[in-house]
Specification:
It contains 6 helices and no strands. By secondary structure, it is mostly helical. The protein folds into 2 domains: about 15-45; about 50-105, no CATH class. The longest helix is centred in the last third of the chain and has 18 residues, at about 85-105. The radius of gyration is 24 Å and the shape is elongated. The N and C termini lie far apart (about 65 Å).
Length: about 110
């Protein structure tokens, strides 16, 4: 075969790189599904105080490219009812207070 010529999918011999990378999709998908199931029960990867919502806070924060302070406010408010209650609301309030101070030209911390 010369440069620029293409083989049909079923023309590849066993051991061909294309087959090794593309024909084993089922194997790859099976591994990915198994990992997803394992991750779903991993409290580090998917803590229950975040997964109770349709959209996890980290997904919302990253998809919207939110600044650090705002991401923390969202995170703490969303988990307040399921993790540390009043403590989480105080943490959220602290981040809001620090941002107000920054905007007003005051000492942030």
């Amino acid at each position: 075969m010369r440069y620029g010529e293409w083989k049909m999918r079923d023309e590849y011999e066993p051991g061909d790189l294309w087959k090794e990378r593309h024909m084993k999709y089922e194997d790859w998908k099976e591994r990915e599904d198994a990992q997803a199931i394992q991750d779903a029960h991993n409290p580090v990867v998917r803590p229950s105080h975040y997964t109770q919502y349709k959209i996890e806070p980290i997904t919302f924060i990253m998809e919207n490219d939110l600044p650090f302070w705002m991401g923390n406010v969202i995170k703490y408010v969303m988990r307040a009812g399921s993790k540390n209650g009043v403590e989480d609301l105080r943490k959220a309030a602290r981040y809001i207070e620090m941002e107000i101070n920054r905007l007003e030209g005051k000492e942030v911390l």
